[in-house]
Design goal:
By secondary structure, this protein is α/β, with parallel strands linked by helices. It contains 12 helices and 7 strands. The chain has 2 domains: about 45-70 and about 105-280, Rossmann fold; about 70-100, no CATH class. Helix 7 (about 140-150) links the parallel strand 2 (about 130-135) and strand 3.
């Protein structure tokens, strides 16, 4: 009888219902607890950034595929070697052409690194910290920006996202400021919440999504006034014809003033400083 009681007690202690609710991962992962999970994704970064005395940020967006020049050249070389095996393969011809275009854009990696270093050196001398660089925490342009802050001994933030395909945070994020999100919406919220500027490098769907989210919030007055600076006028004017939108009447002419173009790190940082001086005046 004693053995039976022990077995019964053991089953009770291991029953899912006996778990403390806040430690019950299966319970917290259910669809009915979505609101709780979203609140936790709101609060955890909020508390951490307060503890780290971070008052404001500069957001840097851009492609994961724009890598440092040496890596871009190696990828191009590999694509050309593969094409040499089958010169008539149209897919490999296309791969070489794409690799060439990415090599042409690889200078943006260094520009992003330089921009983050310039901002971080200027603004992280004492607490509270202002204009702390924040990225999506991934590779490419995001890595470059986190790297720029890291190289000058400054803090930087990475807001990584769980994706179906594995994505690890880049190694240059400050460890105490590296976050992982499940919900894109909460991640976007934290990008914008403390932002003093948004800097956008050439990118694809994700970059466009984040850019238009910020433009819409600025257009509708649903967020603080910040400069939105887009690196690479030639790239962006081919990707998005903003003037055509204004000509068609689907946006106002005044909406074209919501963003500016820059080509150098120094130019972008001067624009940001000038914007906030004007708004303090």
């Amino acid at each position: 009888m004693s053995d039976e009681r022990e077995r019964m007690l053991e089953r009770l202690l291991h029953s899912p219902s006996y778990r403390v609710a806040y430690k019950d991962v299966d319970f917290l992962s259910g669809p009915e607890l979505r609101a709780v999970r979203m609140e936790l994704e709101l609060l955890k970064p909020e508390f951490t950034l307060r503890e780290q005395h971070i008052r404001s940020t500069v957001v840097v967006f851009g492609s994961t595929r724009i890598v440092e020049p040496a890596v871009a050249h190696k990828r191009l070389e590999l694509a050309r070697l593969q094409l040499a095996d089958t010169p008539d393969d149209r897919r490999r011809q296309r791969a070489v052409a794409r690799a060439e275009r990415l090599v042409a854009k690889s200078h943006y990696y260094e520009t992003a690194r330089r921009f983050a270093e310039l901002v971080s050196k200027s603004c992280q001398r004492e607490e509270p910290h202002d204009y702390v660089v924040v990225t999506g925490g991934g590779p490419g342009i995001m890595e470059a920006a986190n790297r720029g802050a890291h190289c000058c001994g400054a803090k930087s933030i990475g807001l990584n996202i769980r994706l179906p395909h594995e994505q690890a945070p880049n190694p240059f994020i400050s460890p105490e400021l590296c976050f992982q999100f499940h919900y894109f919406a909460l991640r976007k919220f934290h990008f914008i919440l403390r932002a003093k500027a948004l800097v956008v490098f050439p990118g694809g769907f994700g970059t466009l999504d984040e850019l238009f989210d910020a433009l819409t919030l600025r257009q509708t007055g649903r967020m603080q006034e910040i400069p939105i600076i887009m690196f690479g006028r030639e790239y962006w004017r081919r990707v998005i014809d903003f003037e055509h939108l204004a000509d068609e009447g689907t946006i106002d002419d005044a909406d074209l003033d919501l963003f500016r173009y820059a080509e150098t790190a120094e130019e972008a940082w001067t624009m940001i400083q000038g914007f906030h001086r004007r708004h303090l005046a």
